[in-house]
Design goal:
The chain has 338 residues and is α+β, with helices and mostly antiparallel strands. The protein has 11 helices and 9 strands. The protein is globular and about 60 Å long. The N and C termini lie far apart (49 Å).
């Protein structure tokens, strides 16, 4: 199995994970340019999940397994549903990179309209509500009580992020794009006052959660690699980039909303406000900020492919190019209240 040194990993699992025994079988759940996630089964059929950085040359800071393990372990002390962490290995001689192991959680990742169809229509409102409730619970976590008070700077999150991604745009852009330049300017000129600090997941949506198809509840929140401390409304705005109101044209292929039965985004925002007591009147700014950030990320990927850095010359680059432009226009529209 590529990404697993089976002999060394087996020895490590036997020594460090209680209640399991080799030999082990491995199957890749999720791969690509993000962290690799493997389903592991021991000799008796006990299942667990192993996560490691992608193969090839990667920035260690972008795929910090010990940090991700620390976050999930801390959040696991709360009512937020996450897999239970079982162990972390920072000795790269074992598997060529650090990795950690967590419990297996049953559920479906609703990362497409097709997957969304698997959730019965009468449970889609329940799933929408629970997605928001879990986010509200995450944002209510006492960061000092769970040991994450020193995870990152507490204040100035949006301001730092706007500066960071504006600089990234300047460094990675392949063409002039007036919409993104104007969005960056308007974002910088209208930085909102940060009301409190919370654990900010950074990539919170149905596509990064496990949903129980029998109850409609979120069974586990996944993919904590972008997690930091920051303005909680950034997570709520981020959901809005992916969300499609039922009956509207579905523009995202990696999100199930838009199907009959799911809540509207306004209903999501209002439920969050009711649960948290936070002022959500400026949510359009946070949605614009998330669209802007994703536009810059899209351009960076497009630029790397364009310049041959990804080593794959058969990729159709037009969707990436258009995706950047669409996200930039969406950011501008949100800022202008459209």
């Amino acid at each position: 199995m590529q990404g697993i040194d089976e002999e060394k990993v087996e020895a490590w699992l036997n020594t460090h994970i209680d209640g399991v025994e080799g030999p082990y079988s491995y199957s890749l759940i999720a791969g690509g340019r993000s962290n690799l996630t493997f389903l592991v089964a021991d000799a008796h059929g006990t299942q667990m999940v192993l996560r490691r950085p992608p193969l090839g040359h990667v920035l260690a800071t972008a795929h910090d397994m010990a940090r991700e393990h620390r976050i999930i372990s801390a959040v696991g002390k709360t009512g937020v549903p996450v897999p239970k962490t079982l162990g972390v290995c920072t000795d790269e001689s074992v598997n060529g990179a650090a990795f950690y192991v967590m419990s297996y959680v049953a559920g479906m990742v609703l990362d497409s309209p097709e997957k969304g169809q698997l959730l019965p229509e009468h449970l889609r409102a329940t799933a929408s509500d629970h997605l928001v409730d879990v986010l509200a619970d995450l944002h209510a976590v006492d960061i000092d009580a769970v040991g994450l008070g020193d995870l990152a700077k507490r204040e100035g999150y949006v301001e730092r992020q706007v500066k960071r991604w504006s600089t990234q745009w300047a460094n990675s852009k392949t063409r002039e794009l007036p919409a993104i330049e104007e969005a960056a300017r308007l974002l910088a000129e209208n930085i909102p006052v940060q009301h409190g600090v919370s654990i900010a997941h950074g990539d919170y949506r149905f596509g990064n959660c496990l949903t129980n198809l029998e109850t409609g509840h979120i069974a586990g929140v996944l993919d904590w690699e972008l997690c930091t401390l920051g303005d909680p409304l950034a997570d709520l705005g981020y959901i809005g980039v992916y969300w499609t109101d039922p009956g509207m044209q579905m523009t995202r292929t990696n999100d199930p909303t838009g199907l009959a039965g799911f809540r509207t985004y306004d209903e999501i925002v209002n439920r969050y406000a009711t649960r948290t007591g936070r002022d959500v009147s400026n949510i359009g700014y946070y949605k614009a900020f998330s669209s802007f950030r994703l536009a810059v990320i899209s351009e960076g990927v497009y630029a790397r492919y364009l310049h041959g850095a990804m080593g794959d010359h058969d990729v159709d680059l037009m969707p990436l190019k258009i995706g950047t432009e669409t996200l930039a226009e969406a950011a501008l529209a949100s800022l202008k209240g459209k």
